[in-house]
From TrEMBL:
Superkingdom field: Archaea
Pfam families: ABC_tran
Name by which UniProt lists this protein: Phosphonate ABC transporter ATP-binding protein
Keyword Transcription regulation: no
Entry keywords, A to Z: ATP-binding, Cell membrane, Membrane, Nucleotide-binding, Translocase, Transport
Gene3D superfamilies: P-loop containing nucleotide triphosphate hydrolases
A GO MF term: ATP binding
């Protein structure tokens, strides 16, 4: 539902170049995984794409239009820490996703339309939690809570879904489940998605396309077949790799 164009984007914080002349385009409905070591610039890129910060240089186009700041109501965000209201039910947490597109008065009064309510239930169904709709978030497992976080983002009815290390704090089985639901939700809704992940095996399983960052530079952009172990090493260790008879080594 959204096309994104990142054109020569740099982000500089004091002496730190968090992003260095990064360019790429994402088509409607693509499921893109961002890879890179800690400090590579993944969160900075996601923060630019969800309108929380602006580039120092370069531009971002959203559906063909250059935007000064991304229209936040069109961008759904899933965080590593889901930030649910623990005392509220899964349903009420999901419904709160509708606030970002309601009128200010509606939001203040916490009034939701029938359409908002229908969308929250549909989103819970998408993440396999319809039967748990009335359960308090605090009584759910980490994986279920993260799925409620996804449902909340879906209730916003975004054009772009961003997720910043959504499974980093989950065990492998829960991580797998959460990624499966997110992937299915994106496919069902043809939702353009960008997900940063640390786990390369999970990334390979769920991504269509992979963008690798290292020290703020885009050093890889390709599909699963192109994401070889050699490429993964380059993404994580940069140029500090040498090929020897024993294979790749790090210096
Ligand atoms: N608000 C900020 N002020 C100053 N420096 C920042 C700020 N945000 C990010 N940085 C710096 O920019 C660089 C990129 O950070 P970023 O958080 O984007 O990396 P990351 O790839 O998301 O890392 P991680 O996987 O650890 O979250 C780092 O050197 C970081 O210290």
């Amino acid at each position: 539902m959204a096309t994104i164009s990142v054109n020569n984007v740099s982000k500089i914080y004091g002496d730190t170049v968090a992003l260095d002349d990064v360019s790429f385009e994402i088509s409607d409905g693509e499921f893109v995984v961002l890879l890179g070591p800690s400090g590579a610039g993944k969160s900075t890129l996601l923060r630019i794409l969800n309108g929380l910060t602006t580039p120092t240089e370069g531009t971002v186009e959203f559906n063909g239009q250059v935007v000064d700041s991304m229209p936040t109501s069109d961008v759904g965000m899933v965080f590593q820490m889901h930030y649910l209201v623990e005392g509220l039910s899964a349903y009420k947490n999901a419904l709160s996703g509708a606030l970002s597109r309601s009128s200010t008065v509606g939001s203040l009064l916490n009034r939701f339309s029938e359409e908002d309510k229908r969308m929250a239930l549909e989103a819970l169904d998408t993440v396999g939690l319809l039967e748990e709709a009335d359960q308090r978030a605090s009584s759910m497992s980490g994986g279920q809570q993260q799925r409620v976080g996804i449902a909340r983002a879906l209730t916003q009815n975004p054009e772009l879904l961003l997720a910043d290390e959504p499974v980093a704090s989950l065990d492998p089985k829960a991580a797998q489940d959460v990624m499966e639901y997110m992937r299915r939700a994106a496919m069902d809704r043809n939702l353009t998605s960008i997900v940063s992940l640390h786990q390369v095996n999970i990334a390979r399983e769920f991504g269509d396309r992979f963008i690798g960052l290292n020290e703020g530079e885009l050093i890889f952009d390709g599909d699963r077949d192109e994401l070889t172990m050699d490429v993964v090493d380059r993404i994580y260790y940069g140029d500090e790799t040498v090929q020897s008879d024993e294979g790749i080594q790090h210096i």
